[in-house]
């Protein structure tokens, strides 16, 4: 609803007010939405949920928490919105706490809440709570919902329990989609099962599911961790030639990492400088890290030159190149580099320990 149409209404009801509030939020005008919210002569639960969504969407969590705590009535949308907002902002502990409070009150979580908390388990590696949620999903009869099943699969995969991930994957009552396949491939990649990841990737293609950008990142990452150079090259080539997926900086980074981890530093460097898109500092650090592993001073110096231009004040890069010099006995360069760090006031970030 436009503001002009709303202004023509002699006595707009709460539905009209909510429609205008929705328009403000969809336009990411949270300040305008907030002004309207406090002008409203009456508010219902939908109004409160809309404003709550506006705050969480814009990252204004303090305002969201204040509004949420003051709501006399909350429904499953209220809870799922708050849980999503907390988790999306990286406040995983508070997200868990909010979900547990929902359960303590005897309320039934909806599929959005469950999917989001499972995603939080994946980020935090909380396998035990993931199992609790799995039991709850079975009890509520929500295992048939694709988003819930995929979130459960992703949680088990990223928590490192491939046995449970496989169990969920094989028992899926619905046709597996790209999210399902990518989750299991990602889990295999994380655990270093490159050959099995490729088998699943081929099975996905055989089932008629076309891999997308994210799936290609996962399978290339699997090849990198397992040192499967030929397979990685073949998959990278088929991205655009067969599937019409243009490689992004993430895919190029996977290939540089693939060559670097395998010790093929010249190939990694040549691939990097021939990329059709500018390399980021992250990719140059990948090759610098590989040089550190294999003691290649020549390419390390070239990478360090690029990093000095892209991110000159990063102490980690200076320390890494210094360690490479030390590793090959170039003490003169070590002293010179550390003196340069002092002159430029570049300080190594101190480590810390809980011991």
Automatic annotation (TrEMBL):
Residues annotated as signal peptide: none
Protein's UniProt keywords contain Repeat: yes
Entry keywords, A to Z: Repeat
GO molecular function: RNA binding
PPR repeat positions: 44-74, 75-109, 177-211
Transmembrane segments: none
Gene Ontology annotations of biological process type: RNA modification
InterPro entries xrefs: E_motif, PPR_At4g14850-like_plant, PPR_rpt, TPR-like_helical_dom_sf
Protein name: OLC1v1012526C1
